[in-house]
Amino acid sequence: MNLANIYDTINQLERDIRELDAYDALSEAMDKLLNDDEARELYINFRNYQTSVQTKMQLGQELSEEDVKKAEDMQKTLANNAVLSELMQKEQQLNQYVEDVNQAVGRPIREIYDRANQATKLSSEDKDGE
């Protein structure tokens, strides 16, 4: 198989994802969010906070108890908003497909490393048996 065929497959996969009911459902849920001022503001605040937490983590900074509490409170607030709750549910449904694709795409690479792990395991068993 040549490289062009792999990219053809990737492009087809993208088109197929866009045709999933779960994709349409997520898109509709996002439209609802964008048309709801309260939900949109909560979403923007959460995304901004999420970005700041991720930045801290990437810089190796510890999250304070206040950070954790704020994240938990925001999560509860989001879950209690019907529009955001629906968006998160639809996102989870679509993400399941993406996760399945990632598992399948990564399988050949994992198999290569599994061989090395198995060889290492056998090698250590041989040494233990000596």
UniProtKB/TrEMBL annotation:
Identify the SUPFAM superfamilies for this entry: YheA/YmcA-like
Family per UniProt? Belongs to the UPF0342 family.
Which protein, by its recorded name, is this?
UPF0342 protein DBT54_05370
> In which organism is this protein found?
Aerococcus urinae
The organism's taxonomic lineage, starting at the top: Bacteria, Bacillati, Bacillota, Bacilli, Lactobacillales
